[in-house]
Amino acid sequence: MSARHPIISVTGSSGAGTTSVRNTFEQIFRREDVSAVYIEGDGFHAYDRDTMRAMMAHEPTLSHFAPRANLLPELEEVFRSYSESGTGRTRHYVHDEADAARYGGVPIGTFTRWEPFQPGSDLLFYEGLHGCVVDNNVDLARYPDLKIGVVPVINLEWIQKLHRDRSTRGYSTEAVTDVILRRMPDYVQTICPQFSWTDINFQRVPTVDTSNPFIARWIPTADESMVVIRFKDPKGIDFSYLVSMIHDSFMSRANSIVIPGGKLDLAMQLILTPIIMQLVERRRRLA
């Protein structure tokens, strides 16, 4: 953690909805004139697409969830460097034609060049799979000043992944199912333990039947969901204010509030804006 160079980490597995959460953070940053540098977890994969496919052909359980398939020591070094001096570097993974056009024709399935952060940022924002990994080799959880978990119930997570990968990446249901099965060991051993380190978890729970995610024709909408928001340390959280501001919300435990799914953006704005501004104002006082 660093008062001068704060870090925000948003962690969730593939299909969890971390990109939507990032969009809310970007809205807050624009409105409050916060200058952020961004890290995408995919940029720290260890292998390009062709190399990864070749390796997976020989290792039935290898997946992008696995620490060995990612440059986690390098990511930890970026966290450390930024927290100490506001410096670091990142790159981007090119998923599709839109990314290829955005990054100047870099081939799909490969990476852009490593580039240093622009100086003078207020904070570093990470979004990806491994923002809070703690194991025998790395301790990523010690660096972020605000750690967010995005954790829909697993059937909903699978539905979202199935629909995204089929519609935007052209994968078959069978191919996505194979990926889900391949990832399960690392989902249990690497992804889930991170949510014990997060400061706030947002867990979307559908209120419609998702019993068989592999035949679901639609993703449950926000209005067909509730969201459980859990605070690791509820001290200082004004739950009475949140319940009064978010219609139909209620407390389920002393550290948890449940809200209608359609109110997630409002809840995030109410909860996260003062936390972000506290980090930024503290940094600016010390600058």
What are its keywords?
287 residues, alpha/beta, Rossmann fold, eight-stranded mixed sheet, globular
Provide an overview of this structure.
- The chain has 287 residues and is α/β, with parallel strands linked by helices.
- The protein has one domain: Rossmann fold.
- 37% of the residues lie in helices and 17% in strands.
- The strands form 2 sheets. The protein has an 8-stranded mixed β-sheet with strand order 2-5-1-6-7-8-10-9, sandwiched between helices.
- Helix 5 crosses helix 6.
- The longest helix has 23 residues.
- The radius of gyration is 19 Å and the shape is globular.
- The protein starts with 6 loop residues before the first strand and ends with a helix.
- The model has no long low-confidence stretch (mean pLDDT 93).
Sheet with most strands = 8 strands, mixed
Helical region count? 8
Number of domains: 1
Computed CA radius of gyration, to the nearest angstrom: 19 Å
Strand order of the largest sheet: 2-5-1-6-7-8-10-9
The CATH topology name reads Rossmann fold
CATH superfamily: P-loop containing nucleotide triphosphate hydrolases
Structural class: alpha/beta
Given as residue ranges, the uncertain stretches (5+ residues, pLDDT < 50) are none
Q: What is the straight-line distance between the termini?
A: 16 Å
CATH architecture assignment name: 3-Layer(aba) Sandwich
Quick check: average pLDDT?
93
